[in-house]
Amino acid sequence: MPCRQFTVRTLDDITDFTAWLAGRSASADQSIETKVRDILSEVRQKGDAALVDYCRRFDCPGFDPDHIRVDPVRMAEAAQQVPAGDMEIIARAAENIRAFHQRQTQNSWWSLEDDGSIMGQIVRPVDRAGLYVPGGAGGDTPLVSSLLMNAVPAQVAGVEGIAVTTPPLRDGGVNPYILATAHLLGIEEVYALGSAWAVAALAYGTETIPRVDVVTGPGNIFVTTAKRLLIGTIGIDMLAGPSEIAILADDSADPAHLAADMLSQAEHDPLAASVAVTDSPELAEQLMPELLRQRDALPRADIARQALDDWGAVVLVDDLEQGCRVVNAMAPEHLEIAVRDPFAWLGLIRHAGAIFLGHDTPEPVGDYFAGPNHILPTMGTPRFDQALSVETFLKKSSLIRTPREYLERFGEDIARLARLEGLEAHARAVEIRSKDGKQ
Questions:
Q1: Which active-site residues does the annotation give?
Q2: Domains plus CATH for the chain?
Q3: Which of 167, 206, 174 minimizes the C-alpha distance to 55?
């Protein structure tokens, strides 16, 4: 059997299934936090010297301070080196992502009331954003899509200062596809830094890197831990864990398609979760050999095999309504609804990072090209969290203006509320301006 099988008929069955799936979080090495705290401290105290030391130890033995920031000339050169056809594909993906995120823009507003008071909200972008782009197999598989998904929403939000960090290659450079994409987007700050020390440099600033206000982007457990420990010093997008997919399917689904989609997540990471939920016993039976056949033909078969062995599952339910309850309890990062009429079931889905509707909408369409962001909450956090968006790079200030007449009308009420909380000075600050408070 390539993965586990569950039969879910009761709420207790759903609880047992989600408890098993939650075991992925227990797999993390608890000693990592201590290591990351040490890294943060070193970078804060020693700046560039600490960055050079970590890069020499883990990435590039010959790394020196000149390697930290990539010369923008090198980015322009990389744009000429990358095949023109690939650059066209990257540009089209960027256009799609930009068009989607432009619909997320928010405006400042205010409302003038009849009594002359003004209430409103000012929406502004942060001054600077730091974007973390994972290295991807030592730089041999450049994660261009992660750069696009980070950078385009920041640009749409109006962020003026955008700094990209990505792990250096063994020679101290950066994969030309990453540099070419940055050039295409008009980004001039790219730093050859990875792991927790990159996040620390963005948060604290160093001699070479101006500090940022928000850090976004996926990364390994060291990156995620650094982001978590720096909340309050910086804003972050989310604390993402291993990738995951759930597929809600009926007997109209093609088992070959479902197997391919489950494996598209399983090849990411040994901790990736791939779950099919179906009311068709025949489909569940057909899916198992298809998973084996496709898995063993993959270049990353070993990773996919471990992920399916540990965190893959086919869940058999009595009907699709029960299947929706299983999906909501899981709250997956990606959800495919592979049924005859996906819109008929969409209303029952409450918790998912991204939802893919129909038999011809595989998850990679969203990962790379369609436009919605692929930086998504995981590990059940779609219950309260959401995809990286333009809003991630915005901050809002409330706007309040009240005339004397407003205080004369409501000052007594405001003062009473203040005194209920034992804050006499608050009450007097209102009363001194009201008609009764005049000397």
A1: 333-334
A2: 4-28+241-384 (3.40.50.1980), 32-107+126-236 (3.40.50.1980), 402-437 (no CATH)
A3: 167
